[in-house]
């Protein structure tokens, strides 16, 4: 630690890029503060008189004086009449470099603080889960990504400007936690017409994502440590959302007709709700049969249970019309319907929604107000106009046609380049294809080999709970052209052949 003031050290600090846009007196004040906190200027060191330092730096005395006054107010220096200005001896030792070195020495003696140390029990659990990794760039064959290059951005931008003009300062304020009324009206009209739902705007809660909806369900419908039933295999993000809310996930197996309602009837875990993806089961792609949908509704009504229906990509059904949603069939109002715009529009929009039974609307709205208040109003109002103007339906129709073509291109490419490696199962809809590995092929090894070739494979086994797992991949195709699909498939084939 320096025992005397060194002018050259201060001059070097004044030239730091971080300070270049500050006024002169702020640059001096910040530079001296950094030197004090770094330990370069220790307690009791006398600073030059303001006149002397100003002359040395070639600036006005008032400039240095203003810096000294601020340092004194902040407690970094003390000024004694007739004596001068000194680095304070009462600045907490933990703020100074010497103390930092002592802490470092202590850590070196006992080992650095472990990642996750000092967290709560829930915090450690979340840390150890490693979260959920959302795809930030388009890579073959990442799952869940829509085509964004054809999104009508100019139309969206025009509608956003119009919304800002129409609503003016209102969009800059806090919004209703339930969501913008124009958007809730547009969503209700769409779901009732296209998905056979029975929804009113008063039942709709606008959220930032499906996972936020599922986290709220776990918080409000299951106490810590209590069970939530979930399809097996099932959506990884749902399981993480439930587990982060300290719910215990109990798996219910899926077969060719979807969730096995006989196992649901036989469950004795005491769970109050079940999570399902009936329109397009994730990841198998099967559709829950009408018979089982009705049985699921009866089970919930007779036992006072809740159904969490995640309808994440039912808009993209290519072989005939999709089955009506469970919520529209449920006259007992035991179904919580969850939807998202991340698949139909673009992931960066960060907007989803829930259709809640009337008895749950207030509780979920209060919980949402605590969590993050509301979704940005300008985006909600823009989306409302996008839907009301017919642009949403038009975009979905165009994407449905495009994705059906890309699904077929992916099936053909798998058959051509990976014959004998995997068996691909042609889905009726969705944005990805499930593939099962042939005997003798390791899921872990193939994922590693693919990554080395710049190809991303999502493994199937992690989506299973319990000892029985299927080895394979999910191959996303919606965000890739036919050429990109086949080129990446050739790279994958070469990587696996080695």
UniProtKB/TrEMBL annotation:
Keywords: Aminotransferase, DNA-binding, Pyridoxal phosphate, Transcription, Transcription regulation, Transferase. It comes from Achromobacter seleniivolatilans. In the C-terminal section; belongs to the class-I pyridoxal-phosphate-dependent aminotransferase family. Pfam families: Aminotran_1_2, GntR. This is PLP-dependent aminotransferase family protein. The lineage of its organism: Bacteria, Pseudomonadati, Pseudomonadota, Betaproteobacteria, Burkholderiales. PROSITE patterns: HTH_GNTR. GO terms for molecular function: transaminase activity. Residues 22-90 form the HTH gntR-type domain. InterPro entries: Aminotransferase_I/II_large, HTH_trans_reg/aminotransferase, PyrdxlP-dep_Trfase, PyrdxlP-dep_Trfase_major, Tscrpt_reg_HTH_GntR, WH-like_DNA-bd_sf, WH_DNA-bd_sf.
